[in-house]
Amino acid sequence: MSPSPPDSPDTPTRSLNRLGLGSLAAIQLVLLGICLIAANYLSTLYYSRADQSRGANYTLSKATTRYLASEALSAREKPVKWIMAFKRVNPYNDRVRALAEEYVRLSNRKISLEIVDPLRSPDRAAQVMAAYELTLAGDMMIIDARTTEGAAVVTDAMGTHELNPHVKIVLAEDMVSHETDAKGQRRPKGFQGEDYLTANLVQAIEGKPRTLLYLADKSRIDAQGEGSPWRTLENTLRLQNIQLKAVNLSGMEEIPADTEGLALIAPKYDLSEQELAAFQRYWNEPKSSILILLEPGVTLPKLKGFLRANGITPRADRIVIRNKDQLVTKARGTFAYNIDFIRDLAGQTSEFEGASSSLEVREGADDLINRKIHPWPLFQVSEGFWGETKFGDGKESFDKTEDNSGPLFLAASVAHGDMTSEKLANDVSRMVVIANTDFLKPENRRAENIDFLACSVNWLVGREALSGMGPRSLGLYKLPLLDPQISFINRVNLFFLPSLFLVAGFAVWSSRRA
Questions:
Q1: What CA–CA distances, in Å, run from 285 to 256, 282, 421?
Q2: pTM for the complete prediction?
Q3: Angle formed at CA 227 by CA 267 and CA 333, multiple of 5 degrees
Q4: Which domains does the chain have, with CATH numbers?
Q5: What are the pLDDT digits (tens) for 46-64?
Q6: Cα distance between the two ends of the chain
Q7: What SS3 state is found at 128?
Q8: What is the pLDDT of residues 235-276, one digit of tens each?
Q9: Could you give the CA distance from residue 97 to residue 175 in angstroms, rounded to a whole number?
């Protein structure tokens, strides 16, 4: 093959169009800049956040998320104002700020957040404290849900100054649970920021707590000590903005019309004819609510007759199972499906510690439907358990002629009223019965059972938006290190690492000099 002839020296050389290339490059840079600006602008409007922490510590619970999307906030014209007065040196500052920003995002901006560092912005901090007549004694979150420009501080009939009912204060120290160690020192053991932020948000929006009348003369539950079952019940309800008010049913001919609900906890004394009539009249009123926690082994004929007439019959038995030679009273089972207020718990397995009895639930009975009474089981005990009617004689074994076989139910609900009519749906009366009180004891508490109780009481007071799996307390962990390990870490930080950087710097300087 012959080589190609060289270019002719007479062929003109095309000059480089620098202006055209420069203009093209400039246009490309401008278009790239426009694309970047547009992408950044769109990302501020449409984005998603992912919690990459191991325990999803910065993800709000379903109960809180559902409440933030509810009409309680979405119908507001004026956002709820949050003022986070935290010093940056506070060890929980970043965690609380991340949680607060999640509240703002999930509320669709119905919560506004202002962050004030008292050390960096002392003037603004002083203005905030003056507006709410507070003393900055510690880091705090101010939740202001006032819908008008009324005063943040009001004066009651006694001349006492107090915060407006729609203004709540959450102290940083309240978000941290503590314990006392063997040396008598008080140490943090967990973080409960979401619990207190959600509870105070609900309190600020509603202005006052919902009230359940606790029938003190009929109920008997241990209320002594910080870890008593009563404290567990009281604290659970308090975090739902529900308070228990003790009253005596004896001598009460009529239950007040403005009563938001009744609580009968571990009843040991039966109702008289007069009390039963008052109880029945209240139940027949629209929007009535009753919470009953039964203690196994206690048979109260009139109360049992009232419950039986509404489709739930407490049985005189004890739920047990044989595990080899051991009799186990811890009831294991699953929460029911197709119940709206416990939908987050549906199908989840749990255990109710202590003593439990079974309930007969006449779901779908024709005579009950004709009277507009609708009972539903809420917790079904697993197969293998039975209801022992002769518990305590030491010879417990299943006898099909005397004992109760499955299916066994430990908790049930009742709705009384016309549930098919949209106009009358809000007038339906509600009742929840749980045949166990031992699950409230500190040593028996399980998170899913406390969530179940919280969902039940929120359903009773007509606040389904707050039903769901609640927040989890985040544990604080210590890294145990021996003195030699601490000494080694100090040597690495104070000697070896600085020496390494010094040697690297000398090597770079030497190579450049060469």
A1: 11, 5, 17
A2: 0.78
A3: 65
A4: 55-206 (3.40.30.10), 209-475 (3.40.50)
A5: 777 776 666 667 788 888 8
A6: 53
A7: helix
A8: 888 888 888 888 888 878 888 877 889 999 888 888 889 889
A9: 13
